[in-house]
Design goal:
This protein is an alpha/beta fold. 28% of the residues lie in helices and 34% in strands. It has five helices and nine strands. Strand 1 and strand 2 form a beta hairpin. Helix 3 crosses helix 4. The protein is globular. The two termini are 26 Å apart.
Amino acid sequence: MSQRAALDLRDRVRDVPDFPKPGIVFKDLMPLVADPAYFRETIDRLEELARPKRPDIILGAEARGFIFGGALADRLGCGFVPARKPGKLPWETVEATYELEYGTDRLQVHADAIRAGTRVIVHDDVLATGGTARAKTELVEQLGGEVVGLLFVVELAFLNGRDKLVGYDVDSLISY
């Protein structure tokens, strides 16, 4: 039996009840990142899904999207572009707004981070309601990039995030 078959990534995803508020069970991926075998396996599996899409850039949102996205970009030999909260990037930016349960939030990327025709995989650790992921696709498309896929470690399928991503190629490693 190969090591791949032996590792169930769910074994390193910790459930944290009532975080960040009562009634929510947070999926904590930090134990997975801290375990070298599981982290390597996660990046291996993300690479298998990403490589056929031939991305030029991995776009990841802060903060956990930086961890996986940076490692994936290195593995694929492509660039990494961070999507950040307003006020965190030091250069001219473009912005996308997305809905939260109680209000809105925004993400920005540098205006020169993605050129027209650039093949981009949008990555994050978790696909929940799809709002953040949709905002990241908008950022790529504002700059003329082509979203060739969206890639997540965990998908909370019961929140129907894929509904906001119709027309895009969406993959996740673990689904709850």
